[in-house]
């Protein structure tokens, strides 16, 4: 996630002081002559990158020359600038950069316009990349579900390809956690797309439950036992091989324990087959 860099404490202080001085007659004349017009003239010839990126000097550079000249006139200039500031002080719709700053608790009031606009472009690019990624995942998952629902797809092929889908579901969970931790999931463009992706995942899981139940209903007790043993072992790390269990009752107990362990990870897609196999155990093997 892109982070917003707040202005330094010194820059914030100088900018705040300059803003206050703009409303004080005579003082505003001095500050806008020496710290406004003269500094703006000097900054034209400055080549230092660090100075150009400094929030205070960027603020001076962005400050309207019309404002500086107007404030050279005591009283009348202050009144005119005050009126213009009131007119221009309108509530604006939150953009992508405002959102990023808000969720990070950063005040942008002292950020110069040029730095703000540069960061706005970067924020828009980041949010657009995230939404495009979510759109792509939604289309891919929707396409996979439609393919799986096709009558021409054999159960064995579905069982083999399901492993890839489970991997994508694990990736979706990691992405969801990352977006929630960074609070990006609250973004008005990201929130509905993330919810759509999660809803599609739930639909896929529900379909897999139904489809796999139909599949194991066609198996003999012996075939079901082998299927349960295979899925039970597949839920463990490849480096760890649990003992094979021959007794149906022992296997049923082991499967139930494994379901309870995996349920704690909040990844329902990992236990679909074990749940359906356990239900069949209860109905036919015991």
TrEMBL record:
The chain crosses the membrane at residues 64-87. The keyword Coiled coil applies. Keywords: Coiled coil, Membrane, Transmembrane, Transmembrane helix. Residues 113-140 form a coiled coil. It comes from the Bacteria. This is Membrane protein. It comes from Candidatus Criblamydia sequanensis CRIB-18.
């Amino acid at each position: 996630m892109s982070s917003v860099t707040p202005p330094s404490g010194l820059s914030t202080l100088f900018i705040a002081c300059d803003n206050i001085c703009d409303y004080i007659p005579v003082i505003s004349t001095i500050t806008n002559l020496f710290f406004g017009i003269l500094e703006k003239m000097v900054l034209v010839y400055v080549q230092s990158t660090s100075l150009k990126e400094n929030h205070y000097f960027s603020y001076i550079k962005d400050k309207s020359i019309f404002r500086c000249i107007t404030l050279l006139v005591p009283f009348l200039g202050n009144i005119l600038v005050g009126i213009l500031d009131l007119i221009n002080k309108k509530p604006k719709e939150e953009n992508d950069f405002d959102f990023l700053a808000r969720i990070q608790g950063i005040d942008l009031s002292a950020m110069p316009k040029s730095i703000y606009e540069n960061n706005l472009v970067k924020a828009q690019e980041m949010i657009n990349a995230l939404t495009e990624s979510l759109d792509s995942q939604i289309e891919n998952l929707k396409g996979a579900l439609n393919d799986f629902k096709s009558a021409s797809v054999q159960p064995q092929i579905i069982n083999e390809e399901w492993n890839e889908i489970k991997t994508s579901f694990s990736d979706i969970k990691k992405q969801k956690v990352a977006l929630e931790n960074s609070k990006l999931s609250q973004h008005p463009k990201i929130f509905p797309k993330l919810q759509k992706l999660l809803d599609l995942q739930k639909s896929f899981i529900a379909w897999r439950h139904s489809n796999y139940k139909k599949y194991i209903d066609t198996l003999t007790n012996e075939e079901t036992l082998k299927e349960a043993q295979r899925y039970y072992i597949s839920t463990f790390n490849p480096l760890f091989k649990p003992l094979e269990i021959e007794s149906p009752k022992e296997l049923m107990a082991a499967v139930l324990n494994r379901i309870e362990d995996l349920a704690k990870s909040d990844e329902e897609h990992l236990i679909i087959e074990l749940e359906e196999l356990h239900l069949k155990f209860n109905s036919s093997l015991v």
